[in-house]
Specification:
Strand order of the largest sheet: 1-2
Keywords: Membrane, Transmembrane, Transmembrane helix
Helix content: over 70%
Organism: Telluria antibiotica
Protein name: Phage holin family protein
InterPro entries: Phage_holin_4_2
Structural class: mainly alpha
Pfam family, one: Phage_holin_4_2
Length: 117
Amino acid sequence: MRLLLTWLINAAALMALPYLMHSVSVDNLGAALVAALVLGLVNTVIRPVLVVLTLPVTFVSLGLFILVINALLFWLVAHLVAGFHVAGFWSAFLAAILYSVISWALSTLLLNKDGNP
């Protein structure tokens, strides 16, 4: 149940992004659900590998390179999912940050501290 609610929270965060940034568009709720699912899978499978491979750069940049990795993965998902569009890298950079903040805020409001809805 918690996984389903987290997926819906992330889809809602994606649906909110076009209202905050004109360079991001989500055509419909179905596209947001698919994009949230693909983004979750990419962050689970590909992101840890990229973080390990870029560890020296991340260390030298004091961890700020993680933001670049997040932006690249967000941009990648926008290219993979029909109905979810991001204008460019810098739009993806800012959108990834906003997406994280929105999904964190919604998760904090809707999920209890023990992780149950």
